[in-house]
């Protein structure tokens, strides 16, 4: 049994290390012989067993004795665990391909190793809410699509968050694809503890909403983010410049921003997000089903299609 | 003999390894390594061909090494020392150079290394037979001697268990029968005094790497009168005085057996190794090994799970403790020792498959001692073996 394990271990190592290739070859020969009901002639099983027992014996003769005596049993257990782990990985991969997460449609929030494949992650809030969660509502926040659409997508996002920014291209594709079949609501979730100017962005966007140019300004904030500012331009100047480029009434905009007119509105959004269990941006609620992070579009499509077909 | 002092000449021993695989190959002292470096640094040229000063220096050093070895084995003439790559090459040289005829018999023991078995098996195709006598059994040896036995080729000290044969008596018997004698001295030359004149042996082959010398070096001794009659085995550059397109005139021994450019660094290193051993004294070395072997045998010899090959008497086994643990594969034991306490021993059939097959054994674990091993080494070995015994 140990030959199967060594084949897997040395097989993987052999991809990166030429010195492990002869061992991988030896392990393969051993496994092949065992599968064809012949004895492993290479002595690899003896070598591996003895090496492990020898190392343990240096530390604990008793543990070495147990390992030596029950080595075949341990090998079987490890092989079973390896097969189970492999099966679980395949299952996770299957889910990932369908839902963009490892655990299927209902467990979309949990950590998934495959996310790393596409660099997917999100800005996480350090503190999380405890107690019963509340279903988020659209409130009076801006939306695209149809007000009474069958599928309501509420996005909790932050203009200063690179992951919210990354998700926007997917959001745009969804809006284009589904049009009035959905209602896409944007709610502010500025994580000031990580992004110091996050609330200011959100308040500025609300000032643009006052002039019915929210989505234009929203788009500019995400596409021409602060990294694009010149060295001389300070942050406020950047926000003002984007407002000018959007064609906002600057007097009204400046006054709105200076007075912090939408401070409470942004705070309400944030608190509603906390109550709904949002702990990072972007977080999407699709008829109450959650997607965290900039997932691939297929993850959204899967849920939206399911909700539309209900 | 001060083993602690000797150890300081072997840098690797300060790195925590307990080296008990000396029958396979010994470690090399700094003196040998320095000599090899001296050649490569100061006069790295070919000898025996050119007339420049560097070449002359190489010739002098090679001759010097040959003289040291001549003295070490008490050979009559310096020309009786031929440099080879190892014991195996020396035996093959005799097998191929001696004019054995169809119907001739070569007598070998049942405990020969493959190097002293296969060359004779190969000659079977020419009608030259090899017959087997029981190792160390004089009566059996005598009974196998007859007029067809032209050569007795046998091991002086067995590499699988360290036991030795009464070769002096065997040589007398062989000569009385009109047979020549070739001794495989791979395990005797590094450990005990060998006097080829006293033994009156005709040929004697041994390896440099088993006696603190460099790898790829060996010695073949042959009585000069016999070497003169032998046809060369490998021929080519530096073996001839002159050639025409039709024929050649070979140089006298040893040159006619040393074809091509020689391993000068190795030869010089081997000379230095032999000098090093002479300084310690071969009698001291074997006495030290036996003392250590006794220490191991006293502690492990009577254990019910241990089967010693070669008997309980450590004096008969010299520096080798070859054994099996019941229900354990010898390779298992060796690998465990290596991983648990960095103890290097040999496991397997030690190139004596024929003997192990005859005795229906897979092999053995072989701990082989040398002048730099200490009581601490063998105590640690015993301690680890005692732990291994608890495994099964």
Summarize the model shown.
The complex is a heterodimer of chains A (310) and B (392). With 310 residues, chain A is an alpha+beta fold.
- Any idea what the CATH superfamily of the largest domain in chain B is called? Type I PLP-dependent aspartate aminotransferase-like (Major domain)
Helical element count of chain B?
15
Number of domains of chain B: 2
Total domains of chain A: 2
> What structural category arises from helix and sheet content of chain A?
alpha+beta
- Give the class of chain B from helix and strand content and strand pairing: alpha/beta
**What is the CATH fold-level name of the largest domain in chain A?**
Glutaredoxin
Which blocks of ≥5 consecutive residues of chain B have pLDDT under 50?
none
Question: Which outline of chain B best applies?
Answer: globular
Any key phrases for this structure?
heterodimer, A: alpha+beta, two-stranded antiparallel ribbon, 12 helices, B: about 400 residues, alpha/beta, Aspartate Aminotransferase, domain 2, Aspartate Aminotransferase, domain 1, 7-stranded mixed sheet, 4-stranded antiparallel sheet, 15 helices, about 15% strand
Protein architecture, described:
Chain A is an alpha+beta fold and 310 residues long. Chain A folds into 2 domains: 98 residues, no CATH class; 172 residues, Glutaredoxin. Chain A is built from 12 helices and 7 strands. In chain A, the strands form 2 sheets. Chain A has a 5-stranded mixed β-sheet with strand order 2-4-3-6-7. Chain A has a two-stranded antiparallel ribbon with strand order 1-5. Chain A is elongated, with a radius of gyration of 28 Å. The two termini of chain A are 50 Å apart. The relative contact order of chain A is 0.12. Chain B has 392 residues and is of the alpha/beta class. Chain B folds into 2 domains: 249 residues, 3-Layer(aba) Sandwich (Aspartate Aminotransferase, domain 2); 110 residues, Aspartate Aminotransferase, domain 1 (Alpha-Beta Complex), CATH 3.90.1150. Chain B is built from 15 helices and 15 strands. A 7-stranded mixed β-sheet of chain B has the order 2-8-7-6-5-3-4, with helices on both faces. A 4-stranded antiparallel β-sheet of chain B has the order 11-12-15-14, covered by helices on one side. The mean pLDDT of chain B is 96.
